[in-house]
Amino acid sequence: MKTLSILVICIGFLTINFFLRKGTASIKGRTGIPGFVNRYFPLLELGFWSVFSFWAIALLFDGSQFFNYVIHLLLALAVILFFWFFLRDYIAGILLKTRYNLSYGQYLKSGLVRGVIKKIRLLFIEIQTDDGSTCMMPYTRIDRRSIELDIRESQGGESLIRVFLDGRLDESVTSRKIRQLVINSPWCAHKSHLRVHVKESKAGIKTYEISCKTNTERGSKRIKELIERKFTAIKQ
Fold it and tell me: Which of 119, 215, 222, 234 could form a disulfide with 126 if both were Cys (CB 3.0 to 4.6 A apart)?
């Protein structure tokens, strides 16, 4: 009877969990479930299974001589999992921040990740990569053997960037794309100071001059490299 009760509750929860995962979008749209419920649903799920495991063990082994051993084993397993999933990133973060003196605006290179440090969180670091995307990297995933920090990239200023592109490209469309690319880059300090000017050059080549304020010393160089990767730049 005890085993049957456990199986019924387990199957019931799995069924509810299945329909919740399949119908998250429609349920959220109809009932207005707050976003944090969907965000922290895996934690709620983990909490339920933890409580369910202790309850099932207590029900099955109640009065048995192995009850205390099983409970202690589960507690030890829970502590190990907690340290593994949470404290390892916290401890790794303390070691990295102490050893390398991480700060906002630094350019970080580590393994396959490279970009400007935007936020330093408790368990992870938020990096804006060279292509403008945001990467949330846990501290344990950062390769400490290949960390490079460009500390000099702490000062910026007014920059004039010249890029030579094919003259057959539409000026307005290309200027708009360049402007959007620079705005979304991690090196543009003030969006309101961004200007894109087009000049005619020889042999069907147009010069695009981008005037902007950067937040790092090498920001203009990185913006130019970003534009050249996006478009087919012509070297002069």
Answer: 119
Please check whether residue 88 lies inside any domain of the structure. Answer: no
C-alpha distances (whole Å) from 199 to each of 148, 167, 170, 233 are 38, 10, 13, 15
For residue 83, the model assigns a pLDDT of 79
Asked whether residue 111 falls in the same domain as residue 168, the answer is: no
Distance from the first to the final alpha carbon of the chain: 83
pLDDT at 152: 45
Query: What are the structure tokens assigned to 3, written together?
Result: 């085993």
Average model confidence (pLDDT) across the chain: 76
Task: Specify the number of domains making up the chain.
Answer: 3
Whether the predicted model's global pTM rises above the 0.70 cut: no
CA distance 94 to 75: 27
C-alpha–C-alpha distance, residues 211 and 160, integer Å: 5
Q: Taking the alpha carbons of 59, 63, 66, 70 in that order, is the dihedral positive or negative? A: positive
DSSP state, residue 159: E
Q: What is the pLDDT of residues 140-155, one digit of tens each?
A: 888 766 677 664 444 5
181 neighbors 226 (Cβ within 8 angstroms): yes
Closest-CA residue to 94 (of 127, 122, 135): 122
**Which domain does 19 fall in, by range?**
2-62
Domain membership of residue 89 (yes or no) is: no
Give the residue from 125, 83, 85, 123 showing the smallest Cα distance to 104: 125
Candidates 37, 42, 50; CA nearest to 79 is 50
